[in-house]
Amino acid sequence: MKKKPNILFMIADDHRFDAIRSFGDTTVQTPVLDGLAAQGVSFSRNHMMGGLSGAVCVPARSCVHTGVNVLRACKNPDMNDMPGMMTLNPEVAHLPETFKHAGYHTYATGKWHNDKKSFANGFCGGANIFFGGMSDHNRVPVQDFDPNGVYPKEAEYFGESFSTELFSNSAIRFLETYDREEPFFLYLAYTAPHDPRTAPEAYADMYHPADIPLPVNYMEQHPFDNGELHVRDEKLEQSPRTPDAIRQHIADYYAMITHLDHNIGKVLETLSSSGYAEDTIIVYTADHGLALGQHGLLGKQNLYDHSIRIPLIISGPGLPAGKQVQALTYTYDLFPTLCNLTGIDVPLTVESRSLAPLIYGETEKHREFVCAIYKDLQRTVSNGEWKLIRYYRSGGGGAGSDKMQLFNLTEDPWELRDLSGQSEYSGKVGDLSRVLNEWQTSIGDSLANALDIKP
After folding, report:
1. What would the 3-class secondary structure string for 231-251 be?
2. Can you list the residues of the chain whose pLDDT is less than 50?
3. Are 352 and 327 in contact (CB under 8 A)?
4. Residue 371 domain-assigned (yes or no)
5. What is d(CA 182, CA 445) in angstroms, rounded to the nearest whole number?
6. Given 15, 101, 150, 403, which is the most exposed site by the fewest CB atoms within 10 A?
7. Domain finish residue from 312, 331, 359
8. Cα 362–chain centre separation
């Protein structure tokens, strides 16, 4: 019986969908990821589903690991219950545990921003495990793998190198020493390019702020209260934003990405030299994107494309090379996709849809719409051409706005021209509003039917 393919699953933090050279940004240097895309399948309209706290990475990763919608992925979606939000829903299957039970040796290094019990249930081994959201990249509090699954706080210690190198080197050591018969599932979760954006000097020197073009949708400040203008991310730079400050933020961001790209290259070189490259499915993605001056915002606590669209590349044995998929996808589609690609039964609890038919050209359609949420403040729906964003006041009268935005993404990909107030588009607003409300109702969103906003 032929051995199942290995899995190398890499996920970054804050990597926006277009911040890869081959995905459209001609300033950032990402030769390794460009090469990976050329060897595999890239999904250019991939999305995350949002979340109910400013730490969007928690629900984004929960969806990936469970294959269910953002309100089911965690134990308790209540934004006031952070332990419940961080805990993967114990009533549904989990990605690493599914592969572990299917005979894979599951191994993790890097960021695990969910609960320790689900980590212990899912992985057979690991090194330099970070149970947190962010840290100084040169002083990451990590733990060794604990076969008892306890991971007490007192067992933490600081890693000895920059986070990207620390986690990459753990993956490299795993590949160099792996000698088991069973296939491996290697989960490599980076904290880059998340702030603090303090890339090593050689990479920081590659990007000079004066040479960084401002994004087309750069604004000094957001044009209205979106309900989250004072969250931590937005306080990383004073408002109104200035062109020089935003260019510096982008330069630092690109430096982090290029350093990340270089270290991914080292992991892939080891994968090849260890003899595993021809039998390994490689995934690269991220949890969410980042604004960095677009629409006057800095963070990811919004539903513009720069924050909810993320890169996705899948490469491996038998997969097409250089294929670009334009269909609307979600990152949580990876759960059933990897099951299909490895011949593992998809757990019955998984709601997401396999990307395998898109990969093999069996269809060009995947889903008609993608939707996302942010706290009790924002909801969005898009069919790829048209996009509607609905804004609410928190709790019915707090921060935020009673407002809609409508964008034609084909003609206005930077989401600059709000058409919601023009009478000729009232039908489009109504159609998208109905689709959004149907989706909200289907996932049990408390804001379904909450407000009938007139554009």
Report:
1. CHHHHHCCCCCCHHHHHHHHH
2. 1, 453-455
3. no
4. no
5. 42
6. 150
7. 359
8. 26
Indicate the helix (H) or strand (E) that contains 7. strand 6-12
Q: In sequence order, which ranges of 292-377 are alpha helices (DSSP H)?
A: 305-308, 334-342, 356-359
In this prediction, residue 453 carries a pLDDT of 47
Of all helices (H) and strands (E), which one includes residue 157?
Answer: strand 157-158
Token output for 379:
């909801």
What CATH number does the domain containing 404 carry? 3.30.1120.10
Helix, strand, or coil (residue 89): coil
Instruction: Return d(Cα 378, Cα 308) in angstroms, integer.
Output: 12
Domain count, the chain: 2
Task: Give residue 272's identity as a one-letter amino acid code.
Answer: S
Q: Which of 254, 248, 256, 233 has the alpha carbon at shortest distance from 162?
A: 256
Same domain flag for 344 and 434: no
| Cα diameter, the chain | 66
pLDDT tens readout for residues 229-264: 999 999 999 999 999 999 999 999 999 999 999 999
The residue whose two tokens read 């023009």 is 422
Q: What is the pLDDT of residue 397?
A: 66
Which ranges constitute the DSSP H helices of 43-81? 57-66
Dist. CA 151–CA 248, nearest whole Å? 38
Residue pair 257/28 in contact by the 8 Å Cβ criterion: yes
Enclosing domain of residue 339: 6-359
- 3-state secondary structure labels for all residues of 176-234: HHCCCCCCEEEEEECCCCCCCCCCCHHHHCCCCHHHCCCCCCECCCCCCCCCCCCCHHH
Determine the distance from the C-alpha atom of residue 378 to the mean position of all C-alpha atoms in its chain, rounded to a whole number. 18
From CA 256, how far away is CA 53, in angstroms rounded?
25
